[in-house]
Amino acid sequence: MFVGRHKEIQQIQQSLKDDKSSAILIYGRRRIGKTSLINEALKQYTGTKIIYAAIPDEIEKNTSNLSKLTGSILNEPWMGFTNLQHYLSYLAKREEEIVIVIDEYQDMRGKDEKQAIIIDALLRDFIDYKKSNIKLIISGSAIRILQNLAENNSNPLFGRFSSIINLQELNYLEASEFYKNSSIKDKIGYYAVFGGLPNILCLIDEEKGLKANIESLILQPEGLARYYIDTVTSTEVSAINNGNMIIRRIGNGKKHYSEIESAIQEEKARKQLSKTLNELIESQLIEKQYPINRQNDKKKSFYIIKSNLLRFWFTYLDGFSGIISPHAFLEKYIMPSLNTFISYRFETIVKQYFATINRHDVISIGSYWYDNKETKRNGEFDIALETIDGYEVYEAKYYEKPMTLDAIKEEIGKALKIEGIRLNDFGIVSSSGFENIDFPIKTISGIDLYSL
């Protein structure tokens, strides 16, 4: 099942049609759907498709495998190049329409930096001298390495990509296609826990419900979502010095720099904190956020784990081992606070909703921080839209039942008591909707969120 990615598919297909196109670069974290995206985009491609997934640190083996694959597809059984330059030189002279895909390119170039630069240079020459009928797609999950190919002007491949796709998780609306028959409550819950990873979402069994899917996919030792988490933590996070320790602190609620720093006992790790945080951000494991009206205020900035699935793991399961009864663990340690966990992810869903509806007057979307020194009142609105005319803010409420008129009046009263801020509009988003009300305020229900 393939869902969404319409913009990315169009981008790839347009590049394949363009005679001036040089090469396409696609990168993103593991299990995010890079290979599926490429296969979907190539369905309409009428030329020859050579799709190869590289193996780690074996340049001659990779060249041999790629050459044999190419030979079988082009009906050239003699092909058995072990020299990458010779292979690329031969391929560049072919007359037919060909697209070659090198998946997990970081494995093709290897860990030895000198060898990696040589391979990058060979690809550069191939791109520069190949005929326009030959197209190249490079993809991979080593985000920092692949970003460097496009952004570092000292890298041989700098400036060679006519199209670059930094593939992100599906948004809440796209993800809901994997459980489209579920209730609004369950749709929100599934996204809050499992996020937008297509290869994980396709494993969800709607008939079981949220609790049972958490138990079978995450808590069970053989759960496939758990396997994904183990892979990410043991490879991507562990590859960053102090990465596991820092992301664990963030997962345990230490969001601000000072909070993270104070939770670290080792002096060396504290001194390297900024570097570690930057590497986690570059690897798209965490992200740094600011209130949209305080983007230069370092004290108000904070860090969050980017993936909902990883955030769920570090919130509830990191440090636990040898769970005898996953069901008992679920009931004791997860269920009492699961609604609270989901409610915070619901705020992200609402922000994605406003980004999806493409309001042309919106400049940015985030949270809004207020601080009145005279009244000593401060706090934060969950969702804020900076528009051409000012700010409009929304409170996101993840409720079991429709919101009552009294509850709405209470929220409006809280907002009116805040002095020293200028808001153009105020609204409320309620996951379970609203009781029959007649009140001059913007209201958005859970049904509205999923009816775009």
Write the layout of secondary structure elements.
Blueprint: H1 6-17, E1 24-27, H2 34-41, E2 48-53, H3 59-74, H4 84-92, E3 98-103, H5 105-109, H6 113-129, E4 134-140, H7 143-151, E5 163-166, H8 172-175, H9 184-194, H10 198-201, H11 210-219, H12 224-237, H13 243-251, H14 257-262, H15 267-271, H16 273-282, E6 286-289, E7 302-305, H17 308-316, H18 326-356, E8 362-372, E9 377-387, E10 390-397, H19 405-416, E11 423-430, E12 442-445, H20 446-449
Parallel strand pairs: 1-4, 1-5, 2-3, 3-4, 10-11, 11-12
Antiparallel strand pairs: 6-7, 8-9, 9-10
Radius of gyration: 25 Å
| Distance between the first and last residues' Cα | 21 Å
Strand order of the largest sheet: 2-3-4-1-5
Q: Low-confidence segments, ≥5 residues, pLDDT <50?
A: none
Q: Indicate the mean pLDDT.
A: 91
Largest sheet: 5 strands, parallel
* Helix content class: 40-55%
Counted beta strands: 12
**Structural class of the secondary structure composition?**
alpha/beta
Beta-strand residue percentage: 15-25%
SS field, number of helical segments: 20
The quaternary organization reads as single chain
Global outline: globular
